[in-house]
Amino acid sequence: MSSAKNALFGGIEAGGTKFVCAIGDADGRVILESRFSTRDPVATFRDVFDFFRAARAEHGELEAYGIASFGPLNINPRSAGYGRVTSTPKPGWSDFDLRGVLVREFGKPVGIDTDVNAAGLAEARWGNGVGLPSLVYVTVGTGLGVGIIYQGQPLLGLTHPEMGHIHVRRHPRDLQFAGVCPFHGDCLEGLACGPAIVARTGRSLAEASDADEIWEIEADYLGQLCAQLVSTVSPHRILLGGGVMQQERLFGLMRARMRHWLGSYNVQPEIHEDGFLRAPGLGNQAGVKGALALAMDAASRGSQ
Ligand code: ADP
Ligand code: ZN
To answer: Does residue 240 form part of some domain?
Structure first.
């Protein structure tokens, strides 16, 4: 498979509310981009195919495609259901063969991974994780997702890890809240995602003030996540993005809570530097650039 400098790739960021399609070059530069709302799979993929048909007419053939999708997904290449959405409350999408539909349409290599793994991959390659042997990417928005990148690739077990759904110790002033996760109630996502904050305060997050206790509670839960990440995968850095992390006060509070939960046990001095927990570098382009990175990796593997 050619990895010529002028090769072009297709990327699709498949989100629960919107799809972003792009073509880009081998440096992850986006050349053309379009976004549209997510509907049922047939209507949505009609728009995807229209975009790439027009893009190829203008820019020429694409080497490979990558899709960075909402989960849960089957991303195990050795499994019969590889590339399918598994069970989701989104109407029409359960068991949908995301990767298969692209292979059949384009006849080119297609890479697939979760949106958080892909965003982490893009950060490792072109953003705030360049040059690090390991990196964790966390997004705290409508949901809470965690992507673990190890030696340049997302960590893959039987399938992708789901660290957003771990259970954390309840904050003593947050014992009554039931949590909003549809599967577990008060797992980490159920306690710390954007809608969980709004459910407690009844106000939009942009209106929240520094004095609001909710930020201490939020930082405690995120601090627990970071401490657990340090203890389980020992990453070189943790990037935290998404709508909720626009509240920059969280970073300082969270560092203190991570330190609290680790206690004096972990002696690695790097984890106490300010840069260990930081914002991503690619902003809202991480997802689509991640999809391009998946396309490039699929092209270098060469198989469909
Ligand atoms: P998504 O997770 O849907 O891809 P975002 O990462 O932008 O999108 O997250 C959206 C969520 O982030 C909203 O549900 C809201 O609760 C929260 N949010 C949006 N803006 C802010 C803000 N300024 N401060 C804190 N939280 C915010
Ligand atoms: Zn959950």
So the answer is: yes
**Does residue 72 have a cis bond before it (omega within 30 degrees)?**
yes
Question: Does the model's pTM come out above 0.85?
Answer: yes
Distance from the alpha carbon of residue 21 to the mean position of ligand 2, in angstroms: 29
Same domain, 261 and 297: no
Of all protein residues, the one whose alpha carbon is nearest to atom 22 of ligand 1 is: 206
Q: Quote the domain boundaries for residue 94.
A: 8-115+289-301
| Structure confidence at residue 1 (pLDDT) | 45
Cβ neighbour number for residue 4 with a 10 Å cutoff: 9
Claim to verify: residue 262 and residue 150 sit in the same structural domain: yes
Band of pLDDT at residue 193, cut at 50, 70 and 90:
very high
Q: Does some domain include residue 150?
A: yes
Rounded to the nearest whole angstrom, what is the distance from the C-alpha of residue 101 to the centroid of ligand 2? 29
Q: What residues are in contact with ligand 1 under a 6 Å CB criterion? A: 15, 139, 141-143, 194-195, 198, 205-206, 242-244, 246-247
Whole-angstrom distance, CA of residue 204 vs CA of residue 137: 25
pLDDT tens digits, 125-178: 999 999 999 999 999 999 999 999 999 999 999 889 999 999 999 999 999 999
Q: Which ligand 1 atom sits nearest the alpha carbon of residue 206? A: 23
* Of 197, 240, 244, 251, best ligand 1 pocket probe by most atoms within 8 Å of the beta carbon: 244
Instruction: Say how many domains are in the chain.
Output: 2
Q: Are residues 96 and 144 in the same domain?
A: no
Q: Are 72 and 171 part of one and the same domain? A: no
Helix runs in the chain, H state only:
41-59, 98-106, 115-126, 188-192, 194-201, 214-232, 249-262, 286-301
**In CATH, what number is assigned to the domain containing residue 87?**
3.30.420.40
